[in-house]
Design a protein that fits this description.
The protein is of the alpha/beta class and 343 residues long. Helices cover 43% and strands 14% of the residues. The strands form four sheets. A seven-stranded parallel beta sheet has the order 3-2-1-4-5-6-11, with helices on both faces. Strands 7-10 form a two-stranded parallel ribbon. A two-stranded parallel ribbon has the order 8-13. It is built from twelve helices and 13 strands. Helix 7 links the parallel strand 5 and strand 6.
């Protein structure tokens, strides 16, 4: 059954981030009333303005974040600047907002950083989630939780489906899996309708997480060599932001999404070397270097999107040859407009 998105009030907790602002813009374009809730601290303005000298990309990322905020302003999307770790503050805002859908994106969204700072990761991933769930358990909006492909742990060589047992490694994946179980518990106890989504290896415009593909492009634009952890054979299901946004819109508008878990990726893994070669083909005089692999990163691969195709009509459109080329072209435009940020 199709659910009308027009006029639907949607709260995005952590919505000023990479995924959230792209999603808020699309939901608004489709006629929804999106509200962004964000402290602007985690992987956002606060993080980069407080430690600029230690991060060579800080000025670039501040520029990209300000562009996000400008896009939200121009689309008349309300920005509620608050810390979702504050139970009463978040509860009061969500109570006044009366959302039909709550999308929880708030997190320390980087596995390496999570392992280095478990307390902050728990604080931003789990405490914000518990506060959000408890704030809306009586009104029962559709609750969409952003999990991760990291919940699976090591893949077994085949495309992993949602019913594959989870065995996460490290702090990040374990907390994401704990979040899934907490969301399901609120459904069991309070009948809160939910959808859990598991993305993987996201990339796209205005990301500031410096994931592997982003690091490749930024290094190339600065004339530096690309660096791969391991021998380059590790494969990830690289997913362009446009495909993920399409999947979330379907989760909002399809009744079949209720109380389900979905992989939302492109559905075909590529090796790190293959991704690097796409970048090397666009930049001359740059080479590829290898260094030791992080033992706490699981060996991943393709996520099956068959369930999302069947229940939601999900059809990813951006293989890396298309999506990553689009991303590179966008980055070249940023470098042309702001050359000082790449010196």
């Amino acid at each position: 059954m199709q659910i009308d998105i027009k006029g639907k009030r949607i709260a995005l907790i952590g919505g000023a981030g990479f995924i959230g602002h792209n999603l808020a813009l699309k939901l608004t374009e489709l006629g929804a009333e999106a509200h962004v809730v964000d402290s602007l601290q985690v992987n956002n303005l606060g993080a980069f303005t407080s430690n600029m000298e230690a991060n060579p990309s800080a000025r670039l990322y501040i520029e990209l974040i300000n562009e996000r905020l400008d896009l939200l302003r121009r689309a008349d999307i309300p920005l509620h600047i608050l810390d979702a770790r504050d139970y009463h503050l978040l509860g009061n805002h969500l109570g006044a907002m009366k959302p039909d859908v709550v999308i929880h994106l708030a997190a320390i969204a980087h596995a390496n950083r999570a392992n280095k700072d478990p307390y902050s990761t728990f604080d931003h991933n789990m405490r914000t989630l518990e506060n959000a769930l408890d704030s809306v358990r009586e009104k029962k909006p559709h609750f969409i939780f952003f999990s991760s492909s990291m919940v699976y742990g090591n893949f077994d060589g085949e495309a992993v489906a949602e019913d594959r047992p989870c065995s996460p490694m490290g702090i990040y994946g374990t907390l994401k899996y704990s979040g899934e179980r907490l969301v399901q518990a609120y459904h069991q106890v309070f009948k809160l309708p939910y959808t859990i989504v598991r993305p993987s290896a996201l990339y796209g415009e205005r990301c500031v997480s410096r994931r592997v593909g982003q690091a490749f492009i930024e290094n190339a634009l600065r004339g530096k060599n690309l660096t791969v952890n391991g021998d380059g054979t590790d494969a990830l299901d690289f997913t362009y932001i446009g495909d993920l946004v399409q999947g979330i819109v379907l989760c909002v508008t399809k009744e079949a999404a209720l109380n389900q878990t979905f992989n939302l990726t492109y559905g075909s893994a590529r090796s790190l070397t293959q991704l690097a070669e796409l970048v090397l083909g666009e930049f001359k005089g740059v080479t590829l270097e290898y260094q030791a692999r992080d033992a706490l990163m699981p060996e991943r691969g393709t996520l099956s999107v068959a369930k999302a195709r069947k229940l939601l009509g999900y059809e990813p459109k951006f293989p890396v040859e298309v999506g990553f080329k689009k991303y590179i072209d966008w980055y070249k435009g940023v470098a042309q407009a702001h050359p000082r940020l790449f010196n």
